Amino acid sequence: MKESDQKNKKNKKGDSHVKWIIEVFIITFISSICFSYISTNGVSKLNLILALVILFAVIFAGIFFDIVGVAVTVANEEEFHARATKKAKGAKMSLKLIKNSVRVANVCADVIRRYLSEF
After folding, report:
1. What secondary structure does DSSP assign to 22-43, as a single string?
2. Other CB atoms within 10 Å distance of the CB of residue 97
3. Which of 22, 49, 85, 113 has an alpha carbon within 20 to 30 A of 59's alpha carbon?
4. DSSP code, position 97
């Protein structure tokens, strides 16, 4: 009976990984098409100052999401448990991010960087 429980857990885990891969692929593909269209048709018609403002915004957004992706992967979960017990602002959200650090880092460091590179 224990072996069947272990197999069910492995199947559920494998299914969630496949689901995550498919979701990220679809979101990345659709967003890439949208950003490519916007950057080709929208930004090329803007004046120089506005185009530079958008460029700097994209660069700073990329830096911000890289910082978040790295911070989540190296964060120590125990410290945030202590903060959550003291009801510190943002501690519960931090714990959610840290528990899903692989996915958060993937989205922040890879997917969003891909979006921003389309500009």
Report:
1. HHHHHHHHHHHHHHHHHHHHTG
2. 19
3. 22
4. H
54's tokens: 């958008």
| 59, pLDDT greater than 70 | yes
88 three-state secondary structure: coil
User: Residue 53's pLDDT band (boundaries 50, 70, 90)?
Assistant: confident
CA angle 59/119/69 to nearest 5° reads 45
CB distance 77 to 98 below 8 Å: yes
Give the pLDDT band of residue 118 (cuts 50, 70, 90). low
Residue 97 has pLDDT above 70, yes or no: yes
